[in-house]
Amino acid sequence: MDTPDLGSYDLVVVGGTLAGLSLAVQAREAGLGRLLIVEPDESVAAPEVVGQHALTVEYQAPVLSIEPGEVGMVVTTERFTTTATAVALADRAELASPSPDYPIPDVIADRVHLVPPDIDLSGSDVLVVGVDDGAAEEALRVAGMGGGVVVSLGGADLAHFSRLASRKLLRLEAERQATILWSAQPAAIEELGGFPMVDFGDRRTPSLQFDHVVFRVPPTPLVTSAGEVAADAALFAIGPAPVDDQAVHLSPGEAWDVIRALRFGDLPEPPPTTHVPGGEVEAIEALRQQHYNATITRFDRAHSDLWLLRVHPDRGDTTHLAGQYASLGLGYWEPRVDAARESNLDDVWEKLIRRSYSISSPIIEASGYLAEDDPHELEFYVVLVPPGDDRVPGLTPRLALKSPGDRIFLGTKVAGRYTLAHVTDPQTQILYLATGTGEAPHNAMLGELLRKGHTGTIISVVSVRYRRDLAYDGTHRQLADRFANYHYLPLVTREPDTPKRYIQETLRDGTIAGMFPGGLDPAVTHVFACGNPAMLGLPEAGSDGEVVFPQPEGVAEILAGMGFTIDRRGVTGNVHFEEYW
């Protein structure tokens, strides 16, 4: 039976998977005109993307054949025929992953899968192992069923994931629908009670038991540059797509760069930092060697947008006072986790983005002992800053793609006046007030006070949006159990099952005062407040010289009304502030 001819296209993408949609969006953004997505089923992986980018999709069109034609490739489906300059196969492949290099006990063979299992995984704990879009799509599938998901990426570079897949994966983690083991990979799978027990082969990731383990590892090595592909290639397989030997396998993250270079070289060149073309790798490495002077030794994600990292400088020690800050930096040449782009990127591409961060502290070691200051590295507490209508943050979207072992810039000077210099009496009451990552300097101060045997009551109040944003929560609770003079008050403002409370309210209603044996007495108390300027409410001098507090009321005005004195230039007080942005 003859099928209608839809005419010719520049690019035909077979499969509305995350990889296929991402490829189509990138092609559209690059200016490619004639673009068609052929979807064998009734829906695509992310329907909202189709409308956002005006993509053309032909649904329920299983592909029968793809053959070379007189001009380009001829794609024949059950519903129509079309020709294309290039064809990208990104349909949902069920190709088997390579078997792991360790044995799987026969008794759990039906629970360790080299292809996605066609079973109901709702209520099951599932480990997904992979390195690209296959892992992300399987994690989304299991989470959509209502299963618990842990994703083991084994140090995989997010650059190998399509843009949509990386975003969806990070969103799963942010919404606590999945746990991502960024560096861990199974080293062995044993049987325990009829279920897989997975050993990850490192001390920081304990052995975990699952109902099922699903491998989504590409069976074919993925090409990452146009230089490795024949110049006349026109049929491409994106990720683990089922293809014949004529197709070129490409990783989802680099697919468009390769296809563009080979088949659409007349399109305008992409910005140098969107993806790193092969010709710029040496230049970027030279810039890293020129500017970077430290190594990230630890990168723990409380969730996708909140991190604890440690940095080891190449030279010199890291001596500092608790509460001080240091600067971190990355080059504009580094890739971003989001699709934003600085307006002047071409002008600043070879420069560093630097930002100062208060130095935090682990406070307590895994052994249970109070942590000593490590003279060889610094700990930082960092939150991902998303782009807004009037700003494109530079550093944290690039830092989001880093891992232990990666290089970074660390400022040589540690500075700051937000310290314990005014706390000279070990019986002084201490109150810490923080929003979000503003608790970082307080953690360093807290560790120092406890190591020195401070006997006065210490209270740490931390306000965040969601419970998952309390990265040091377990540490604080452990300290409160061990030290009778330490108390911890976490506040959340956006949890649906918890009443919203702000720091200002706990000062006004006496909650904090009631936690001190003698109340909140200015004569024996020092207050340290760090974080959101709205929480701080720092005063300014009015036209007549009087102090003017901003509205709504911040803690500065509340404390001043209680008889506290704000510490500022020329005035020694007992309330100390640091704005965190």
Task: Give an overview in words.
There is one protein chain. The chain folds into 4 domains: 5-93 and 222-263, FAD/NAD(P)-binding domain (3-Layer(bba) Sandwich), CATH 3.50.50; 106-216, FAD/NAD(P)-binding domain (3-Layer(bba) Sandwich), CATH 3.50.50; 278-410, Translation factors (Elongation Factor Tu (Ef-tu), domain 3); 429-579, Nucleotide-binding domain of ferredoxin-NADP reductase (FNR) module (Rossmann fold), CATH 3.40.50.80. Helices cover 19% and strands 27% of the residues. It is built from 13 helices and 29 strands. The longest helix is centred in the N-terminal third of the chain and has 13 residues, at 133-145.
Average pLDDT number? 89
Give the domain tally: 4
Molecular shape: elongated
CATH superfamily of the largest domain: Nucleotide-binding domain of ferredoxin-NADP reductase (FNR) module
Which regions contain 5 or more consecutive residues with pLDDT less than 50?
Answer: 272-279
Major sheet attributes: 8 strands, mixed
Q: Would you identify the CATH architecture of the largest domain?
A: 3-Layer(aba) Sandwich
Helix and strand content put the structural class at: alpha/beta
β-strand percent reads: 25-35%
CATH class assignment of the largest domain:
Alpha Beta
Helicity level: 10-25%
Please name the CATH topology of the largest domain: Rossmann fold
